[in-house]
Amino acid sequence: MSELLEADVVQIRLHGRGGQGTVTAAELLAVAAFEEGLYAQAFPSFGSERTGAPVEAYCRLGRREIRTREPVKDPDVLVIQDPTLLGVVKLFAGLRQHGYVLLNTSTPLHELGMDEEVAHLDPDHILSLPATDIALEYLKRPTPNSVLLGGFAALTGLISRDAVEAAIHHRFRGAVAEANVAAVRVAFDHVNRERVGGRGAGTT
Fold first, then answer.
1. How many CA atoms lie within 13 A of 14 on its CB side?
2. Does 35 map to a domain?
3. Each residue's pLDDT expressed in tens, for the chain with a length of 204 residues
């Protein structure tokens, strides 16, 4: 189990744009945590969720009951569904010293101009994942949310791949569920390969 769970509660903030399934990703993550026997909550920010507008969603999970419903201001983990938000939204605000970042992009991270924002992180704690590319291949839609949860499981160790797959089966049925599960597995394996390779923040 992840060292993050040494804390009572792990705080996760997800950034995306309307139409990318950011809120659904937070909800699926909470269900996956329940599958692992953890307490969890998920909820969106209260801003606009119109298509293309920046959207935030929050998830907390841990070993004890979670009572706060405040927005996540000091995340342990950031999941960034859309790299075009870099420079538009203060994505890294409050990110903790031990934090993790998973970014949906096929561009090498060192080309994205965010070195200063993540300089305090362990290089092994920040990885990119071409989640939209994987979603287009397996889901035939540019919705990277479930793909990123596969990457999240591999990067943080907070939940298992099996728990993510179970959450997907709670939400979807038939061919849609199976396509999402296939995409999750590809993402999980991709991140594990990157971590074993030890290439850290320079990976794609």
1. 30
2. yes
3. 567 766 789 999 999 998 889 999 999 999 999 999 999 999 998 665 567 889 999 999 998 999 888 999 999 999 999 999 998 889 999 999 899 999 999 988 888 888 888 888 888 899 999 999 999 999 999 999 999 999 999 999 999 999 999 999 999 999 999 999 999 999 999 999 988 765 443 333
Q: How far does CA 146 lie from the centroid of its chain?
A: 9
Range of the structural domain that residue 33 is part of: 3-197
Closest of 59, 7, 4 to residue 34, by C-alpha? 59
Asked if residue 204 is part of any domain, the answer here is no
Reduced DSSP (H G I as helix, E B as strand, rest coil) percent helix, strand, coil of the chain, to 5? 40, 20, 40
The H or E element spanning position 136 is helix 131-138
* Domain CATH for 98: 3.40.920.10
Q: Which long-range contacts (CB under 8 A, 24 or more apart) does 192-198 make?
A: 192/154, 194/127, 195/124, 195/127, 195/154, 195/155, 198/124
pTM over 0.85: yes
143 is a domain residue: yes
Q: What is the DSSP letter of 198?
A: T
Radius of gyration of the chain measured on its C-alpha atoms: 15
Q: Is residue 202 part of a domain?
A: no
Q: How many domains does the chain have?
A: 1
User: What is the C-alpha to C-alpha distance for residues 190 and 126, in angstroms, rounded to an integer?
Assistant: 14
Distance from C-alpha of 80 to C-alpha of 114, rounded to nearest angstrom: 13
